[in-house]
Amino acid sequence: MASEQLIECVPNFSEGCDMTIIKQITEEIEKIDGVKLLDVDPGKTTNRTVVTFVGNPEAVIEAAFFAIKKAAELIDMTHHKGEHPRMGATDVCPLIPIAGITMEEVASYAHLLGKKVGEELSIPVFMYEAAATSPERQNLATIRAGEYEGLSAKLKDPKWSPDYGANVFNARSGATVIGARDFLVAYNVNINTTSVRRANSVAFDIRENGRIKTDDKGKNMVDHTGELIRIPGKCKSVKAIGWYIEEYGIAQISMNLTNINATPLHIAFDACCDSAYERGMRVTGSELVGLVPKCVIIDAGKHFLRKQKRSVGVSESELIHIAVKTLGLDELSPFDPKKKIIEYLLEDISGNTLVQKTLIQFADETASESPAPGGGSISAYVGALGISLGTMVANLSAHKVGWDDQIEYFSDIADKGQKLKDDLLRMVDADTQAFNKIMDAIKMPKSTDEEKIARKKALHSATILAIEVPLSVMRSSLMTMDLIKQMAIKGNPNSVSDAGVGALCARTAIQGAYLNVKINCSGFDDKAFVDKSIIEADDIFLKAIDFEKEILNIVTQKVDC
Known about the structure:
- By secondary structure, the chain is of the alpha+beta class.
- The chain has helices at about 20-30, 55-75, 105-120, 140-145, 150-155, 195-205, 265-280, 295-305, 315-325, 335-340, 340-345, 360-365, 375-400, 405-440, 450-490, 495-520, 525-560; strands at about 5-10, 10-15, 35-45, 50-55, 90-100, 125-130, 175-180, 185-190, 210, 230, 240-245, 250-255, 285-290.
């Protein structure tokens, strides 16, 4: 089962003074299930408010549409004045991939939003960045040139026909630019100097734009066309400048990482460290401005563990701890991952989940009179325990004295094990949620023909989910058995019994989930789906029995005296 898809939306509204208007717009966002409002940043001088919210794609699109609609009702661009460039009541609305989703998928959602806004609200919509319909429209500044005041004339130019909506000037709402772009990380690196000039020298070393080339006399050099010659910096998609922070008594390299795939956070940090060292200075720490996706910190943790020649297959919390301490994110102020990582800020959307409970609370909840959590959730959890043991063997093997040449192999196994463990833990709650959807569907009214059709459709969808979740548990648990087998054969011989217990857990998870597939298929009227699911479940179950025998034979041979 793939991780939940999350996208971020950062609409900019042309109102930064009247908090009553701003609140009415943000209320439209907050009323949509599946999204969380993270930040509201009004600016009086710019007369503009930047709003940040995150959620699943469908919910984000719905929330964005209603926010744009409310802004169109409340903001009259004929009276708007502000320092920031703008062309509409909702000036720009970028969508940003956060987790479990590609840029191409996000661009498709941006087009869905653009079409809906253009057609239903009669607002001209231009698509930009990854959602642009032509290279000329990728750049926001190019689209916004002339601003609101020049929009009427611009729309008369055939080259500037909107991507969605009528080619008609909407005097009240102007136009809106919608698109998909990479996450921008605002990041500052601390240097043990008070010199802005020295800090700038590091910034020029690393930023993509680099520095202007000079001759022996310090004069700027130009090419044959008269353009300044630049020496490129080390890091792509990085903007940087040096400045002095009086509050802390240090200089910083202030960066915007505009494409974290081109230059991840940890690469920018290492580049600063190398440049500072070459110039007789030292990086002492860093700070994140705003929020980051979890993958940014996780990737950093793995990077620094690899540099230490350690296994990267450790828990999420351990990876974050390593990243925070190595990057020095807590040098200037405490760094709380729960407040800085987007996915953690979203955890309370679904309330108190099963996996957040203590072992005692989980056991008590299972033993209560409630039918959920039941065998499906327990099967997923047992599977998670099984691969946890296999992952433990991999990590112990990675650090076994004399096995240094195998660190990469065992680290890779442990990393895969952690991902499977996380998948199975997600399924602990997914199984209970599927059961609850069936109960909700059963409770739906069925007095009218329309209600009966809606109830039947909801029950059908919920039953498919209730079958698919335990099937996913079976698939993931079977994958864990392959890793556990490798650890029984090649892992630290002192931990081979742990591999054996892991295999027993995995087989139990598969057999338990198999029972859930069978009972949920029983009586379900979608014969084609039932037949397909049972065939797959039977196949996985038989393979699991064979896997268990193989692993236990290997383990028994090694533990027998």
